[in-house]
Amino acid sequence: MVIAVIDTCSSGQCEDAEVGEQTLERARAGDGQAFAALTDGYRRELLVHCYRLLGSVHDAEDVLQDTLTAAWRGLADFESRSSIRTWLYRIATNRCLNALRSRARHPQDRPLPNLPGGRPEPTRVGEALWLDPYPDSLLDGLPDDAPGPDAQISQREAVGLAFVTATQLLPPRQRAALVLRDVLG
Fold first, then answer.
1. Angle, CA 63 vertex, CA 162 and CA 105 arms, to 5°
2. pTM for the whole thing?
């Protein structure tokens, strides 16, 4: 099942309108620098998006690379009916859902983290032992509307990990819908 991301472009003006048609055509012709110009501005927010869906920074990085590879290969099929950002989010969301389905089919392939003092005894069936906190260093440069440093730290620590932890308990499609609603409104 494929998730479609709906973009709201008014009169043909999408949020990445500054990316010219020439850049898009150069990227379609195989220019790697032009493709980087199209996608680099969205790399960080796509990584955060993948992390929210997968709960692991390492898995999110892998899926982000897979997303960009798929976008590079499928750029000729991009019809410009939506923005580049929306198109990348659709690819990333579908790749994340595929990774979640694969994880569900092969739970034995998902290694548990090496914890100091050994692995704990299981406490609950639905506990997400693989959940990684998102590194603060990767959040630099993302828009932050918090009023001060103490509020930023409190918000990142208290709400961020709790949100990701809670989303890990949802079925993959519901998780994707919630995260996309949060990201794209």
1. 80
2. 0.60
25 is in which domain, residue-wise? 21-109+134-184
- pLDDT tens for 45-70 read 999 999 988 888 899 999 999 999 99
Total domains, the chain = 1
What CATH code is carried by the domain that includes residue 176? 1.10.1740.10
Spatial contact of 39 and 84, defined as CB atoms under 8 Å apart: yes
Q: Give residue for tokens 């620590």.
A: 157
Q: Give a yes or no: residue 49 inside a domain.
A: yes
The confidence band for 2, taking pLDDT boundaries of 50, 70 and 90, is: very low
pLDDT in tens, 7-48: 434 333 344 445 578 888 888 888 889 999 989 999 999 999
Tokens of 184: 């794209």
CB 45, CB 183: distance < 8 Å: yes
The amino acid occupying position 45 is: E
Give the residue carrying structure tokens 């043909």: 12
| Contact indicator for 183, 46 with CB cutoff of 8 Å | no
Alpha helices in the chain (DSSP H): 21-28, 32-39, 43-54, 57-74, 84-105, 149-154, 161-167, 172-184
DSSP 8-state symbol, 56: -
Asked if residue 153 is part of any domain, the answer here is: yes
- CA 172 – CA 177 distance, rounded (Å): 9
